[in-house]
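Work Package 3 (structural annotation) set out to generate three-dimensional models for the target panel prioritized at the project kickoff. During this period the team completed the workflow that converts sequence records into discrete structure tokens, so that structures can be stored uniformly alongside our sequence database. As a representative example, we reproduce one entry of 692 residues exactly as it appears in the project archive.
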Amino acid sequence: MEYAIRLKGLTKSFQKEKVLKNITHDFEKGKIHGIMGFNGSGKTVMFKCICGFLQPESGTVLVGGKQIGKELDFPDSVGIIIENPGFFLDLSGFANLKRLASLKHRISDDDVRATMRALGLDPLSKKKVGQYSLGMRERLGIAQAIMEDPELLILDEPFNGLDKQGAGEVCELLRGLKERGKTILIAAHNMLEIEWLCDTICEMDAGVLTQIKKKYGGKNMGKVLIKCIQTPMQKYFYDRSLDSVVMVNDEEYQILKTVEKTKLVPDGVLRRFVKSGLLRETAIEEIEHPETENLHLLAEHYMGNLILQVTQQCNLRCKYCAYSGNYYNRSHTSNRMDFETAKKAIDFYLKRSEKADQLALSFYGGEPLLEFELIKKCVSYILQRKGDKKILFTMTTNGTLMTEDVIEFLVKYEFNLMISLDGDKKSHDINRRFKTGKGSFDIILENLSRLKAYNEEYYSKVLFNCVISSSSDLENIYRFYSEEELFEAGTVNFNYVNPVGLKDETLSRITQKNFRVHRLAYIKMILSVLEKRKWDAQSRLLRRELQDIELLYEQLHSHVAEGKKTHHGGPCIPAVRRLFVDTKGEFFPCERVSEEDSEMCIGSLDSGFDFDKMSFLLNHGKMIKEKCLGCWNLRMCAYCLAQIPKDNQILTENMLLQQCENSKESTLLLLYKLCILVEFGYKGNENLQVLK
């Protein structure tokens, strides 16, 4: 075996800090070798030693059998990109390369032009390098490195600034150079940038070089994970490795269906996708939330939103409410929070939010306005202690207790207010009733009129939550929110009855009539996207769905490659996004989980955070690690534990797996809808400005 580069005992220090630590490694001639490592790991320093730019304090570097620094100052035939190539910013790309070529007189102007064209650069362009984009500069740097046809190429982060197409073109070029016997060393941050291109891969960490891949295909780095999607007009596949959806022809689709089943790409097929960086073997090796190591730090210094459950009492008995006896895990009680508990919670929060950008204090029930006096005390207390930080107050209320004093208070402190109102009088009063059985619609509308009259500007920012149950009439609800002058576009949020833990499942079922209304609203949405219908005429019932589609579109167009560690996107960081404190002072990740579920309790005011519990909730995907690693939906999956019907039982793998299936169905439906919209001309957020 012939070696292009041989390192023996290579050691280098700067100011007594060892950057390279006794590196011994051989790089075979005529191969592409990848070096993976983060900034500061030693990659660039090793490359500089190989090129003769730095002298090691001990050890030897042999290039082509000759020792650098002793037999040769620099390698005989090498093309180099290390850090940022030094170009003349006031000259064109061709002028820069011509100047460099004139130093050795090895190539002609035509050779320079041919090299530029091979990298997608126009040699006739008068554009100055100072006006080049980052990607164009990277291409020019690669052109400089290869134009004299060197035997050895050393490329430090050659894909910086390149888009997916550009990276694919460079990779094809490098493969061609390899076939001509060239030896290529590539450094990158991420294995995904190099693992499918390179014959060997080494990892550099704190100055130590470790080989992790002997030859391409020699180590099982994972499987190819895709999902095929077909609409009435087109065929697509979703690629997990790049988190992208790609349109394909009929022949490709049939091959991809086999790939979907086998998780393997047959040799010699689907080359245009492979060239573009698609259909890579998965790089994910571990299911772990990326912030796990920082959990303690974040919870102790970056707490975001404190939610106080000031009471478990309510003046209504809504049929579908979690506290009204229709769920297994919650019920109304006489429990209420006292001011001492509230103060302790606020003090706990302020101590652990000193690095948060903004404070947020929310009030939750039951019906929080039953404890209006306590809320006033809490607001006064935190305002006295918050320092210079801005604070946001929020509350969700049923709207029945909004007296003049309450309204004055809410407006004065600029509360973000969410009021529950299930549409027209008939739809609302079916479920949202007082203890006496009387409907609450009339008094809520009276209070809303009073609030609007008191401060119309504040009222315009109030949000409304409409819960859809099996007894709801979507057609009437939509008409009500469209025609009633008290409501404006964008202020109404529609939700369906939460089926998790529900005793009477019929409450959450969608009737055939409501399903037809929903489908009609979806068609109206498509027509709005096609600009065949005015945006303000499209159904507000689909506002959330529009937002979901928009977020999905942006995600799929970011083309972010997989890392080694990941976790599905459902769990938020406990106590950082929000901390729910119940009436007794116990901690929960949010208000959506049951206070009766001991497995969800993550501490208390008396004991502090239970970091073991918090880590478990953040990383519950570890329970089904192997399923997650092999799932095409991992990067799309967004379920959280609040969505799992565990009824205060111990969490099991089967519970998680059932939710996995639900998540995949939801993702497929959303992808299907997005593909259809794109076929109709949808181009992202320019069509959804109404939601901004």
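The CA atoms of residues 333 and 617 lie 27 Å apart.
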